[in-house]
């Protein structure tokens, strides 16, 4: 459903001196600086996949999505959505995709939500009977019944985001691009949105490409993730493979009967005291096993409880960026 072959994009930035003279100089003799935003990225996404596309700010995520959706054209390489090139088949591609970019709205601010939905359906030539059928289904899934006739300006952020999701699904897109879909939402609305994405994927085999700084979105929805750093793809694979290959440091938390008097000292581990009765040991898996760490702790402290702490994907991704642990 999504293909990108050796795609690159470079931005030209004009460096201008301050003041009027600087403006005049830059007008007649502009000094350009070229910044590569995306460098030789290839990507293939099959029908029905939910892909997490993650990276730090400025890594090239948004530029990639804009090229995949036809907003920008790549300087090099080719992009296809369901076999169609956005540059040559813009209208046909737009009918097959849905896009939700952060705070950019599909809804008209001053009119009731239902009227924005009707306008959206007309733009995409959705037949009236099909529109009513889809509207009913989306209203149920996203719990919109009480807000359909309210102006968008009167909605809370969570209500508005739910309506944005309904709008982009009225024409039932085959491919959906979501850029920070749950940013700023409370836990209840986030889970509702995640359930909705799962339902659309299961019932209609909708393909999703999701960028998010909320790693719970990625972990709960995506079996496969793509990591981009400084415009280059540095990882493309399963979450499980990422944990196995990049999670070299684990943590065990301990609770003691009596107050802790001295830290545990041993090579290749880090001892962290939380309070007088709680501490954690961070250790490298190539040097220690779980059993060995627990044995060391029981030998020195009156242990009451032991908790294995699973490393999060967010911690792994942060370590990849900081230490350059590319696959």
Automatic annotation (TrEMBL):
The UniProt keywords, alphabetically, are: ATP-binding, Nucleotide-binding, Transport
What SUPFAM superfamilies is this protein classified in? Answer: P-loop containing nucleoside triphosphate hydrolases
A molecular function (GO) term? ATP hydrolysis activity
Specify the domain of life of the species encoding this protein: Bacteria
Pfam families associated with the record: ABC_tran (PF00005)
Task: List, alphabetically, the Gene3D superfamilies matched.
Answer: P-loop containing nucleotide triphosphate hydrolases (3.40.50.300)
Q: Where is the ABC transporter domain?
A: 2-255
| Protein name (database record) | ABC transporter ATP-binding protein
State the organism named in the record.
Streptococcus cuniculi
